[in-house]
Amino acid sequence: MSLRTALSCATAIIAVFILSACGTKTASQEQQTAEVKLIIKASNYKFDQTEYRVKGNQPIQFSLETTGNHGITINELDLSLDPTNQNQVITPAAGTYTFECSIACGSGHKDMKATLIVE
Predict the structure, then answer these.
(1) Cα-flanking dihedrals φ and ψ of residue 111, to 5°?
(2) Residue 89 is part of which domain span?
(3) Taking the complete model, does pTM exceed 0.85, yes or no?
(4) What share of the chain is helix, strand, coil (3-state, %, to 5)?
């Protein structure tokens, strides 16, 4: 086999691997859909509710509607929303989770707290 033939074969094999990897999605990369939606509104250094309740063990679309630069993160649920990523679908486990604004948004930032209760 000539060097040119060997290089052509190697290039073809590499291309097959690259193309097959591009078409493969892991479960975390796939966009989940959810019938249940929870909208969290943030503005003027507060959330629209101090407590949010949802049923657990089902996909839920969390959405952040914000006036200003606000975000939320719940590390235990791998939930992170901000003005550039306003929607996320997760299946939360039962529990009580406290969250606060994850973006230093001004003088009232420290008061932006709420609770998520997953039943």
Answers:
(1) -90, -5
(2) 36-118
(3) no
(4) 20, 40, 40
